[in-house]
Design brief:
heterodimer, A: nine-stranded mixed beta sheet, three-stranded antiparallel beta sheet, globular, B: alpha/beta, eight-stranded mixed beta sheet, two-stranded antiparallel ribbon
């Protein structure tokens, strides 16, 4: 083993220098303006082909599915994705043909659901998707470094493994103790997509329950689109400032979208729509069925509200809310 | 009461967990094991979830590691950076791991079978596994015991065990002490020899012989003594699992066909 090993892969997203970060974020507006717009407007304005995309939430929990569907609908291409336990969100973007690279921590899986998605497999086998490896904590810490405005962060994971070898990480020695650390590059996504329970029109966001990495993800994003279940008044934000997880000046666009995480969970509000997830997983088994699924649920509807009607409308949503409140047993349809 | 193999594995893993310790769990079998421990001998075992949930009270088994159940009536709902920082500075005792392949030093593969760039099979990758394997004091791997999974060399080291043997973790810069502790399999339980850091047979389930284990292991296991027969789950433990932990059969119905 070399004295100071390094990963073999070229970074998909190069860290900004501290000065570059200051230049970019120094130009972001501090003005409290009404940033509300439709998903279509937000995606057209802030998501570009080839962007490196960071996604809030975790796995199948509090993920910005409405924004993701809009990206698929607008046929964005060659996106590079941070797979910080990216499940249905990433899979759906790949099914829509939007993704060319994944930085993997956990990807290509649907957690405990026993049916395996085939979308990632097909892309990898066809040579249409490049990957490299990281870990969940590494992503959290890469975002934290960016949120701090520094270009790297020393950590004690990934060391000695192939996860490290097939990443773009390096090792460094601590200048104080001489210990070896894994040096992770700060991750500044070109655009961040995030779904939250409540935001005001300026983009101040409250999040219920676990924050995962979202405080840092929102601070790391060069551009940030937030979708919210509910738009609340700025005075409500000011009544409980300790609940503000993301301050407005991180945010470029606010999209009001009830059930915006469907078919994934919104903690405290609604449970997974396992029936829809099962239908999707079944469709992914063939390329034709995947394309038909995307056509039916994205291209053939005009927006996310029309999609929600198609998957069962208010009656379905109320049922998912009852399951989340433990008032009804969940279905396990796979 | 007749128990299933899954129930035997859950009982064996549960028996490893001491009260008043902290334990990283994912979804599935590890969570069932930790839940059984909490409902029997270790009521104050603290369950820790990588996405930020800390010490929840369960009402049903989560399908996702960030699901609201992982912080329902919890003492704390934080972020991954908090939880992983806690683990890094030595506050998480146990961690559960799994994978498609394991070697004699406890290195685990959950990334690819075959060449990385042209994989025969692509799995989800590390997730939090590399972090858990790097930062916890004692990790417990749960594996199907098959020759194609217990290998001299894994195709890809996703999660560190003892790497290349004694001193491997320290040379790489991983925190010490820490690393692999137990492997609970479909045949029995393994540990690691202190000196060589190689996997060692500790016990088998009733009806399983030492030779059955040797036959399904692709490297030389250290066997110092006749393996003990591991206790089968009691009727009460089976009842708790079936009625309280997994009443709808999310785990019992799905342990088949899962990697």
């Amino acid at each position: 083993m070399n004295e100071l090993p390094q990963g073999d892969m070229e970074l998909a997203s190069r860290p900004l220098t501290a000065g570059e970060a200051r230049t970019w974020f120094g130009k972001k507006s501090r003005e409290q303006t009404d940033k509300r717009m439709t998903a279509k407007e937000a995606v057209e304005k802030f998501v570009h082909d080839g962007d490196y995309v960071g996604i809030g939430g975790f796995g199948h929990v509090r993920v910005p599915m409405a924004l993701i569907c809009e990206i698929v609908r607008r046929k964005k291409r060659n996106l590079r994705i941070a797979g910080h336990t990216a499940c249905h969100d990433l899979d759906f973007l790949m099914a829509g043909g939007c993704v060319s690279h994944v930085d993997v921590a956990y990807s290509f899986g649907h957690e405990l659901r026993p049916v395996r998605t085939r979308v990632g497999d097909r892309l990898i086998k066809a040579g249409k998707l490049s990957t490299q490896e990281w870990s969940n904590a590494s992503f959290s810490w890469r975002y934290k470094a960016a949120a701090m405005g520094v270009s790297f962060i020393p950590v004690k994971v990934m060391l000695g493994t192939d996860t490290f070898k097939y990443s773009g990480a390096k090792t460094v020695r601590c200048p104080f103790t001489g210990e070896i650390y894994c040096a992770l590059p700060a991750l500044y996504p070109d655009v961040v997509l995030m779904h939250v329970p409540r935001a005001d029109k300026y983009g101040n966001c409250q999040i219920e329950g676990i924050s995962i990495a979202d405080k840092d993800v929102a601070r790391a994003g060069k551009r940030v689109i937030v979708s919210a279940e509910e738009i609340i008044d700025n005075s409500a934000i000011r009544e409980n400032p300790h609940l503000t997880m993301i301050p407005y000046f991180c945010v470029d666009a606010v999209v009001h979208q009830p059930y915006g995480s469907h078919p994934c969970e919104m903690p405290g509000s609604y449970w997974f729509d396992e029936e829809v997830i099962a239908e999707y997983l079944k469709a992914t088994q063939s390329e034709e069925d995947t394309a038909a699924y995307v056509k039916k649920y994205v291209y053939d509807v005009k927006d996310f509200n029309e999609y929600l009607q198609l998957v069962g409308g208010e009656e379905k949503m109320k049922r998912l809310e009852r399951i989340e409140r433990f008032e009804e047993s969940p279905p396990y349809p796979w | 009461m007749k128990h299933s193999l899954t129930e035997q594995m859950i009982r064996t893993a549960a028996g490893l967990l001491e009260d008043n310790k902290t334990c990283f769990v994912g979804s599935g079998l590890p969570l069932a094991a930790a839940s059984l421990a909490k409902k029997t001998h270790a009521p104050n075992l603290i369950l820790v979830f990588e996405a930020g949930g800390f010490d929840p009270e369960f009402t049903r088994l989560p399908l996702s590691v960030g699901e609201s159940i992982t912080f329902y009536h919890a003492t704390y709902a934080g972020g991954m950076d908090d939880i992983m920082g806690d683990a890094g500075k030595g506050m998480v005792d146990y961690g559960f791991l799994g994978g498609a392949q394991i070697d004699m030093y406890g290195n685990l593969n959950s990334t690819v079978i075959g060449d990385y760039f042209h994989p025969k099979a692509r799995f989800p990758g590390s997730g939090g596994a590399n972090d858990v394997g790097s930062l916890c004091f004692k990790t417990i791997a749960i594996m199907r015991h098959e020759k194609r999974r217990f290998l001299e060399h894994v195709d890809f080291i996703t999660t560190p065990g003892y790497l290349d043997g004694p001193g491997g973790r320290e040379r790489a810069g991983l925190p010490a002490p820490g690393g692999p502790w137990r492997v609970v399999t479909t045949l029995g339980m393994m540990g690691y020899d202190d000196e060589t850091k190689r996997m060692e047979l500790l016990g088998v389930y009733e009806g399983v012989t030492k030779d059955d284990v040797i036959k399904e292991t692709g490297f030389e296991l250290i066997i110092k003594a006749e393996p003990e027969i591991l206790p089968a789950p009691t009727s009460e433990e089976i009842r708790i699992f079936r009625e309280e932990i997994d009443p709808v059969g999310v785990i019992s119905g799905k342990s088949k066909g899962k990697d």
